[in-house]
Amino acid sequence: MTESYGFLQFLFNKYSETEYLSEAWIPINEILKQFLQNSIENFKPTSYQAIYCKVYKSTCKGYKERLFNDLKNLITEHCLNLKIQIDESIKKVIDDCSNTHMNIFIHQFTDFLHQYHRAIQAIVPLFHYLDVAYVRPKMRSTIEHELLFLYKTVIIEYHINHVFAVLQQLINASDSSSMERINLLLHLINDITPESAIKKRDLFKRYYNGEDVLHEIMSNEEHMITSTSRTASKRSVDDLPGEEDQPSAKRTTNMIKSPHTDN
Known about the structure:
The protein is mostly helical.
């Protein structure tokens, strides 16, 4: 009994700032960078377990909000670095609108998005306890959603019109990437920003495995990222609206159909 109490006391004693940085965030930060840079050749399962434990301890020791903010700051910095590289590629397309530069831009955009998506799938399980103990109850969201939303706001929303315009030009010139790459690009875009399918319905119908993605979005409210849902995710648990305040599926469908949503 005494040993159990001692362990719990150790587990829930709050970290000092120095302890948090040296014992938790610095090693966590290094592993996350490996995932984001796709440099995990020497990564071992024991390392994964060790990082999971550090996340668990940080959450228990009073640093859950700090850990979540540090995670978002790291991901934001990574996205901004990717955006700089994409900006350079699109500038070359604007300066010299050749098929070569346009294909390079599409390949780069697809590869960055694919690598980020894979990294997030590896990172999210590491933060499972933080997700359950803090993000879901406090933010009314998930870590996966928040990290994908960062990529959406920093990169996709900024360049999505460029991507569709360049892709359409390449298709019209019969010099586009392979069907597999186009399908991968549209699949990844649809995962992060499904509302994009509304504006490019014909493109998605033709290259996204022949599926009518717009129909899927309109019939599944969970796939719609609206300003209403984003506002709700920022409220505290005590301020959450009741069921009568939530947007209905019918109302959401009407919002999609309304021409004012394109503004």
